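Q: What residues go here?
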C-alpha cells in the first residue's frame, strides 16, 4: 500500500490517495476494507493488463463505496508508476471508460500527470433539487452567482455545480451531512462542486463528499474535468482554454488543478503534480 498526494508537490497539500499497484487477488470486500482502513477520500486499485505493461484496469473505492472514476487517485497512481517505470504514456481502463494518462518530468525533476477524461456531458437540474441542495448546505438562493447557473456535469462521475457569489460564501462550509448525502444518493452525485470565479480563467472550488464518508474532498480531479465541460458548455470560456482551479486552501491542504480544453475534442484534460507521502514513524 502506497500513499501519494495529488495536485501538490507538498505531501501536506493536495489530496491524498491510497495506491495499490497490483490488486490481483483482492476481492471487492478486500478493496473496500483497505480503503476504509486508509481513510482517504479514495484509494486506487490497479490490475496490470496482459495486453501491455503500461495498461491497467483500475477501480476506485472511498471508505464507503466504489466510485466509477477518481481524478486525484488517477494522478497519484500515474506518478507512483512513473517513479518506478519512467515517464510516458499510460492507459487506465476504469468503470467509467478508458482514461489515457501522460506523465512528464519537469526541469526540476518533479513529475506531472495529465489525464484525458471520457467524453463529458452537461445536463440541467430541477429547481426543486437546487433548493434542496441549498437547504442542505445552508446557503440562500441569492448567494449564488447568477452568471454560473446550476448544472449537473459528468466527465466520468456526476457532480452538481453550484457557484457562490463571493469568496466569503465559499469559505464558509458547514452543512447537514446526512441531508446532503441523501440528496446526492438520490441524484447519483459523486460530489457537489462549489465554485467561485476569481477571473476569466481562475476559479476556487470546494467539493463536499458525504457519500464517500468524508466531509470534503481536498482536490477533485473528476470534478475539475466535469467543471471544464460545464464552463465550455455554458460559453464561460472559449473552446480552447486553460483554466486554473485552486482547491483545498480552506482545509489547509492547498492544491492546484489545471484544466485544458482543446478545440475539436470534447474530452477534458486535467493535470497536476504529485508527491509520495512518507510513512508515519511507528
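A:
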Amino acid at each position: 500500500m502506497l500513499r501519494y498526494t495529488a495536485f501538490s508537490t507538498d505531501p501536506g497539500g493536495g489530496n491524498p490517495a491510497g495506491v495499490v499497484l497490483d490488486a490481483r487477488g483482492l476481492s471487492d470486500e478486500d478493496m473496500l476494507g483497505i480503503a476504509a482502513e486508509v481513510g482517504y477520500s479514495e484509494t486506487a486499485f490497479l490490475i496490470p493488463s496482459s495486453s501491455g505493461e503500461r495498461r491497467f484496469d483500475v477501480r476506485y473505492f472511498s471508505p464507503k463505496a466504489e466510485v466509477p472514476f477518481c481524478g486525484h487517485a488517477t494522478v497519484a497512481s500515474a506518478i507512483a508508476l512513473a517513479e518506478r517505470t519512467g515517464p510516458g504514456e499510460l492507459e487506465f481502463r476504469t468503470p467509467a471508460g478508458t482514461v489515457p494518462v501522460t506523465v512528464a518530468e519537469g526541469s526540476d525533476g518533479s513529475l506531472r500527470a495529465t489525464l484525458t477524461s471520457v467524453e463529458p456531458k452537461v445536463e440541467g437540474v430541477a429547481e426543486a433539487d437546487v433548493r434542496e441542495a441549498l437547504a442542505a448546505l445552508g446557503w440562500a438562493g441569492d448567494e449564488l452567482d447568477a452568471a454560473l447557473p446550476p448544472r449537473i456535469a459528468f466527465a466520468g462521475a456526476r457532480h452538481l455545480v453550484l457557484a457562490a457569489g463571493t469568496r466569503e460564501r465559499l469559505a464558509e462550509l458547514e452543512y447537514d451531512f446526512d441531508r446532503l448525502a441523501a440528496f446526492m444518493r438520490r441524484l447519483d452525485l459523486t460530489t457537489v462542486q462549489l465554485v467561485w470565479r476569481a477571473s476569466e480563467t481562475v476559479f476556487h472550488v470546494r467539493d463536499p463528499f458525504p457519500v464517500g464518508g468524508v466531509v470534503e474532498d481536498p482536490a477533485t480531479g473528476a470534478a475539475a474535468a466535469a467543471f471544464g465541460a460545464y464552463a465550455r458548455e455554458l460559453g464561460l470560456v472559449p473552446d480552447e482554454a486553460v483554466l486554473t482551479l485552486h482547491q483545498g486552501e480552506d482545509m489547509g491542504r492547498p492544491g492546484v488543478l489545471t484544466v485544458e480544453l482543446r478545440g475539436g475534442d470534447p474530452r477534458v484534460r486535467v493535470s497536476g503534480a504529485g508527491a509520495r507521502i512518507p510513512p508515519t514513524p511507528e
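A: Context that may help when evaluating the design: The CA atoms of residues 64 and 123 lie 27 Å apart. The radius of gyration is 18 Å.
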